[in-house]
């Protein structure tokens, strides 16, 4: 006797035409983590970048 309520599908198979999150969104996570990469100097320029990209309505008023 077959119990229709407990039909299972192998984990590595998916129904035809069903997309995975990677198919839809692409590779979200980087291949390496931050601590595995060479250090860069972008952190030292954070304040400079902020000042260059600050919206005009946030300018200092003197």
Cα-atom radius of gyration: 25 Å
The helix-and-strand class reads mainly alpha
- The stretches of 5 or more residues where confidence is low (pLDDT under 50) are none
* Fraction of residues in helix: 10-25%
Helix-strand sequence: HH
Distance between the termini: 85 Å
Structural shape: elongated
What number is the mean pLDDT? 76
Total number of β-strand segments? 0
Secondary structure tally, helices? 2
Residues in β-strands, percent: under 5%
The largest pleated sheet is described as: none
Name the quaternary structure: single chain
Give an overview in words.
With 62 residues, this protein is mostly helical. It is 19% helix and 0% strand. It contains two helices and no strands. The longest helix has 7 residues, at 46-52. The termini are far apart. The mean pLDDT is 76.
Briefly, what is this?
The protein is mainly alpha-helical and 62 residues long. Helices cover 19% and strands 0% of the residues.
What are the key terms here?
single chain, 62 residues, mainly alpha, 19% helix, elongated
Topology diagram in text:
Blueprint: H1 21-25, H2 46-52
């Amino acid at each position: 006797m077959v119990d229709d309520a407990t039909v299972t599908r192998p984990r590595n198979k998916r129904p035809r035409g069903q997309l995975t999150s990677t198919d839809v969104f692409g590779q979200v996570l980087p291949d390496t983590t931050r601590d595995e990469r060479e250090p860069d100097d972008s952190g030292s320029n954070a304040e400079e970048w902020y000042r260059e990209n600050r919206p005009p309505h946030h300018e200092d008023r003197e």
